[in-house]
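Internal QA ticket QA-208
Title: Verify multi-chain structure generation after dependency bump
Assignee: T.L.

Test input:
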Amino acid sequence: MSLQEEFQAYRSRMNARILGSGSKVFKRLYSLDTLAYQEEGGLDKKTKELMGLCVSLAMRCDSCVKYHIEEALKAGATETEIVETFEIATVIGGTIVIPELRRAFDYLDAVMLGDGEGQEDRG
Amino acid sequence: MSLQEEFQAYRSRMNARILGSGSKVFKRLYSLDTLAYQEEGGLDKKTKELMGLCVSLAMRCDSCVKYHIEEALKAGATETEIVETFEIATVIGGTIVIPELRRAFDYLDAVMLGDGEGQEDRG
Amino acid sequence: MSLQEEFQAYRSRMNARILGSGSKVFKRLYSLDTLAYQEEGGLDKKTKELMGLCVSLAMRCDSCVKYHIEEALKAGATETEIVETFEIATVIGGTIVIPELRRAFDYLDAVMLGDGEGQEDRG
Amino acid sequence: MSLQEEFQAYRSRMNARILGSGSKVFKRLYSLDTLAYQEEGGLDKKTKELMGLCVSLAMRCDSCVKYHIEEALKAGATETEIVETFEIATVIGGTIVIPELRRAFDYLDAVMLGDGEGQEDRG
Amino acid sequence: MSLQEEFQAYRSRMNARILGSGSKVFKRLYSLDTLAYQEEGGLDKKTKELMGLCVSLAMRCDSCVKYHIEEALKAGATETEIVETFEIATVIGGTIVIPELRRAFDYLDAVMLGDGEGQEDRG
Amino acid sequence: MSLQEEFQAYRSRMNARILGSGSKVFKRLYSLDTLAYQEEGGLDKKTKELMGLCVSLAMRCDSCVKYHIEEALKAGATETEIVETFEIATVIGGTIVIPELRRAFDYLDAVMLGDGEGQEDRG
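Actual output:
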């Protein structure tokens, strides 16, 4: 399994575990999350996903960054748009964001180019 | 002076103080900030400002939120787009963002409607 | 109006503004928030409110701290329990929490003793 | 070694290294940490550990979450109480907490069921 | 009372309240805080205070910034050293630190020049 | 490859990727980062690196901590000075910093003693 597949498999398995726990809170939170990124008349889906990516990177949430890179690409974002999103996140969040920025570029390459040998630093 | 004017006056005065300190680091940081929000071929100005707003709200930076509300409006963002940006920030950042969300709506109203009596809670 | 009344009035007014905006996201988020603190068979209401207080203090959200102090008291928490909650939050979050701890004690006194002259430092 | 044993072994080895460094600051900090979670007349041990867990999850500290899951279980917390603690932490901290929530459920299962094959995502 | 005196008075009054609460945890935390900034054979007092200032600014704790500005000046730090400390904090923490940086310069001026009219923005 | 070499190789490779992306923002941010840590008449290089280390630890950025440990040692910092820097960061940031503190000591030992078997916990 590639790095990307491994990440997706873990995410799916554990999301099923969480939603299978019987918790109404988690069920509603997940559905609220879906709602927030839907087109509702204002921003389009791509912009919403890029926003989610921007916040995730500035707040240094590695799995969130990976997830939103995938979703932004699916919604039609170009590499240029994703890199500009990285720029804004890093300028707002400062150099402390750089380690996460390295992983973000690594994952972007893995998803876009089909490589990503999984030799990543997670620190 | 209205709440909005007071905020802008303080920001201008202290930015002048910082840039007048002779620090090359601050001079370059401010110019980097300007660069990051410029149109460079990918995202348009409005989207970049909304992203800055989204991160600012999720990370609970009150002055940053106010500043990006102003800039987003100047760049042509509608109230609907701004409120959807608030939604994404609050879903990502959780209920701990709600006090800042209250101030964000208050400032948005102040800027859009010309009111904003300054009776805000800053906690 | 006392400090406490002013805080409550602002919170109520702006919550009405947010829920009146027509946003389904905010409506559901507020109702999710209510759900999370309800008794559902495990923890009692008081413990849940004290947990909310503990996180709010450790994450330095002033309005959240005030809100959960009120709710914890309503749910029957004693001063000793609240102070022990402050202790855990401050040990986890470190000395950077101390300014917020000062405001938390100030608000606790205001609510419990009916004083709280509003001469608080918000920094 | 299971995931859980590996985590515990590393923690023990490095805590010994830190306390063996001769630093009075670390010695006192560790003893303060112990004191904060002791029963002192107000909250019981279980509640204190669940609070520590709640803050750790909301602030996305993976090792802290694992540690407090273990301690909460030792202090008699049920799975329901732990899941309700997860709920509060995630509602306060928002969807950015979800990746850590996945690991928290994974570790809870590992500790309770004796599985936990160590195939975790750390992002 | 000047801005600075008001801040100091509030801090003193509430610290007395906290230490007077009978909590052993807070008593030991305050004494641990004192210990951490004492000269113990490695770094000198001035460097330790500047470090505290740097972290406080990067983590956007307004009262902490004010406190460490005062302590750094008392320990003999020059304006140049303080401004360089501000630079490092802002580069690490990013543009989201800038509103706090404005208040930091304002307070530095208030302390060094004896002005500081208290017309500060707290957002 | 040792833990340290692996970390350095990943960092170098991805920094080259980022700077090779054509982004002016990242190019200027990296050069601003270099500028902030240069001697400019106030603080010396060693003190600046220790400050960067202190903030990195308090804000729990693992790669940043590793990087600044290396740079502080290169700039002549002693083990005592580094441990005192760890102390200040942990007291400010609280017990939530402890897992990162364990990894910081581990990496310090790896760099100073040439061991560091890579058996680290990353949680």
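Spot checks passed. The radius of gyration of chain C is 15 Å.
Status: verified.
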